[in-house]
Specification:
Belongs to the universal ribosomal protein uS11 family. It is built from 9 helices and 5 strands, in the order H-H-H-H-H-E-E-H-E-H-E-H-H-E.
C-alpha cells in the first residue's frame, strides 16, 4: 500500500504547467500532411488592415452628414492616402473644415430675448453669446481707441429694461399697457442701435404668466416686431415650477 501511494504523493507536488510539459508530446495534425506556416506575417497584416479600412469606407458611405461622403470610395487605399496628406488640404478629414463637425464650439449660438412677466412687473433682456466688446457695435468701444482693459472685456447683455424705466410706478408696472409699451420701446432700441446686424438666429425665452407675457407676444407679432420677427428661430417657455421645497407663504385675504 505504501508503494502505490508514493507516486501519487510525488505527483501532487508538480504544478499543472510542469505536468503538461513532462507529458509525451502528441501530434495535433494527425490527418494533415501540410506544413505549418506562421499566421501573422507582414503581408497578411497589411491585407487585414486594408480589408478593415475597406469595410469602414463602405459604412461611411452609407452614413449621412459627412461633408465629403459622396466623394469617398470603397477603395481602402484612399483612406491611407488621406492620412498622408497635409492637414491644411481641403480634401483631408483632418482639416479644419471637417473638424467642425466634431467641435460644438463652431456651431453658431443664437441671440436670446428673455421676457420675465410677473404680476408686478415685466423685464425684457436682450442677450448675445459672450463676445469681446471691440466686436460689438453697440458697446461704443472701437479697436483703435480701446484701452488694454477694454480689449479684455466681454459683453453678453446688450439691453435690459423693465416697465419702471418707462416711468411706470407701483401697480402700473404690472399692467398690460406698460408691458406693451416696454416691448415696443425695446424693439425700437434694438433696431436703432444696430444690434440686428449680428443677429442671425433669435430665441424668445418666456418666463412667468403675468400680463406682460401676452403683451410682448402681441408686440412681436405686430408692426413693432417686423424686423425682429424674421430672425426668430425658437420660442421657449422657461417658467420655473416648484417641486416640493419650503412651505409657501400664507395667501393674503381681503375682507
Amino acid at each position: 500500500m505504501a508503494v502505490s501511494r508514493t507516486p501519487r504523493a510525488f505527483s501532487s507536488f508538480i504544478c499543472q504547467s510542469c505536468r503538461q510539459r513532462l507529458l509525451p508530446s502528441t501530434s495535433t495534425r494527425a490527418f494533415s500532411t501540410t506544413s505549418i506556416k506562421a499566421a501573422d506575417t507582414q503581408s497578411q497584416n497589411n491585407d487585414s488592415a486594408l480589408a478593415g479600412l475597406g469595410h469602414l469606407s463602405s459604412n461611411l458611405n452609407r452614413r449621412k452628414g459627412f461633408n465629403n461622403a459622396a466623394s469617398t470610395t470603397a477603395n481602402p487605399t484612399s483612406y491611407t492616402s488621406i492620412l498622408d496628406q497635409d492637414a491644411a488640404s481641403p480634401e483631408t478629414l483632418l482639416s479644419e473644415q471637417h473638424s467642425r463637425n466634431l467641435d460644438a464650439s463652431y456651431t453658431e449660438k443664437p441671440h436670446r430675448l428673455h421676457i420675465l412677466a410677473t404680476k408686478h412687473n415685466t423685464h425684457i433682456t436682450f442677450v448675445q453669446p459672450p463676445r469681446p466688446a471691440i466686436q460689438t457695435a453697440s458697446s461704443g468701444i472701437s479697436r483703435t481707441s480701446a484701452s488694454a482693459a477694454d480689449q479684455k472685456k466681454t459683453i453678453d447683455v446688450l439691453l435690459s429694461l423693465s416697465a419702471g424705466n418707462l416711468n411706470f410706478r407701483k401697480a402700473g408696472r404690472g399692467s398690460y399697457d406698460a408691458a406693451y409699451q416696454l416691448a415696443a420701446y425695446v424693439l425700437k432700441q434694438i433696431k436703432e442701435k444696430g444690434m440686428l446686424g449680428d443677429v442671425k438666429k433669435l430665441e424668445v425665452v418666456l418666463r412667468g404668466f403675468g400680463a406682460g407675457r401676452e403683451a410682448v407676444t402681441k408686440a412681436l407679432l405686430g408692426a413693432e416686431g417686423v424686423d425682429v420677427r424674421k430672425r426668430i428661430s425658437a420660442v421657449v417657455d422657461a417658467t420655473r415650477l416648484k417641486l416640493g421645497g419650503p412651505r409657501s407663504k400664507k395667501p393674503r385675504r381681503l375682507g
